[in-house]
């Protein structure tokens, strides 16, 4: 009798946990330099977010410092051993530095990364090794033989990196978009963004938006023209107000996105302009904040 009571208690407990996991529909900011004052969370420049949706858990970026990432993750009660996937938006240190902590607790998790010439264990182009006839063997790469390894190294050698170069559905309803920056300072840098299908349209998570947040959302609209929300960095730091207004109007009136939840490198001026433009459709998305998503 006692054993049966215990069994039914465990079953009930499992059912609650199981249904809870399936019904949690939100994006939580784990790493940022702004947000509600907190005694437990540490603000720092950088970005990381946890997406919990349709029973899946996806970590997007890992912040600027492994110790701070660990501290915020623990303070928010996030279990990084239970992840379906990780997405790294781009190579910058304020998005990748927590990888060393992540790999300590979850070394095997698939990590989706953009293609980069000398990052993330990318393959090197074969034509790097064009041979020049007539050279002594001491001036020939690999003494004139085929190298055993022809990929770049990585500070995270043990990581299970998966390079993404085109739109890819990594889990049902979870799409990765690959866009390339043409902006001064980051020309040719590739960036991944995550688009999640919801009944009200796509919820898009961006890292720094170096290619332009409007360009990323235009790519997202090719998957589904109905856009629900966007969170992450819009990269409007040091951007003049007229340009911020142009981007804001494009999001609101051309792409007709329902809500915005700007974070990270959007800039304080960016927050102010977007808050004014979107009114009640603007969500504060700083460190520790959660953006609720419409359930499937
Ligand atoms: Zn950044
Ligand atoms: Zn960046």
Q: Any overview of this molecule?
A:
- This protein has 296 residues and is an alpha/beta fold.
- It has one domain: Ribonuclease Z/Hydroxyacylglutathione hydrolase-like (Metallo-beta-lactamase, Chain A, 4-Layer Sandwich).
- It is 27% helix and 23% strand.
- A hairpin with a 2-residue loop joins strand 2 and strand 3.
- Helix 2 (66-75) packs across helix 4 (99-105) and helix 6 (241-254) packs parallel to helix 7 (268-278).
- The two termini are 40 Å apart.
- The model is unreliable at 5-19 (pLDDT under 50).
- It binds zinc ion (2 copies).
- One zinc ion binds at residues 90, 92, 208, 210.
Q: CATH homologous superfamily?
A: Ribonuclease Z/Hydroxyacylglutathione hydrolase-like
- Biggest sheet: strand arrangement: 6-5-4-3-2-1-13
**Which runs of at least 5 residues are low in confidence (pLDDT < 50)?**
5-19
Q: Label the CATH architecture.
A: 4-Layer Sandwich
Cα end-to-end separation:
40 Å
Question: Biggest β-sheet: count, sense, barrel?
Answer: 7 strands, mixed
Coarse structural class:
alpha/beta
Ions, cofactors and other bound molecules: zinc ion
Strand content: 15-25%
Morphology call: globular
**Spatial extent as radius of gyration:** 22 Å
CATH class: Alpha Beta
**SS field, number of helical segments:** 7
What is the number of beta strands?
A: 13
How many domains? The number is 1
Fraction of residues in H or I helices: 25-40%
Tell me the CATH topology. Answer: Metallo-beta-lactamase, Chain A
* Mean pLDDT reading: 92
Written as H for each helix and E for each strand, in order along the chain, the element string is HEEEHEHHEEEEEEHEHEHE
